[in-house]
Amino acid sequence: MTGWDRPLSSFFLQIGHECECDDDENCGHCGGAGEVWIYDNLADKQLPFGRMTLTDVDKKLATLLTAWPSDVIRALQADQLQDRGNEITRYDAVGEIK
Ligand SMILES: [Zn+2]
User: Fold this and answer.
1) Structural domain tally of the chain?
2) What is the C-alpha separation between 69 and 29, in angstroms, rounded?
3) Residue 44 CA to ligand 1 centre (angstroms)
4) Structural domain includes residue 10
5) Would you say residue 46 lies in a domain?
6) How far is the CA of 65 from the centre of ligand 1 (A)?
7) pLDDT tens for residues 28-55?
8) What is the 36 CA–ligand 1 centroid distance (Å)?
9) pTM for this one?
10) Is residue 36 in some structural domain?
């Protein structure tokens, strides 16, 4: 999940996958959340307050994924230019986590 964070005027990026535990609260991988995060910009100590530029997002996608929807970066750029928030676009799954 990625997008333009209008209040913070920066991009966010979370990459994860569903846990195989079926939301077991004793799960050592997800703690019952049902989702395991591979990357979360808010937990990235390399970023100032978790704030990402479009270049940061592009580099992180290339580092962590084998492929991603081809127009995501262009769409993010448009969101930034229009200061668009709370809009959801769903893409078909492509590629996988490296
Ligand atoms: Zn789990």
Assistant:
1) 1
2) 27
3) 22
4) yes
5) yes
6) 21
7) 999 899 999 999 999 999 999 999 999 9
8) 7
9) 0.86
10) yes
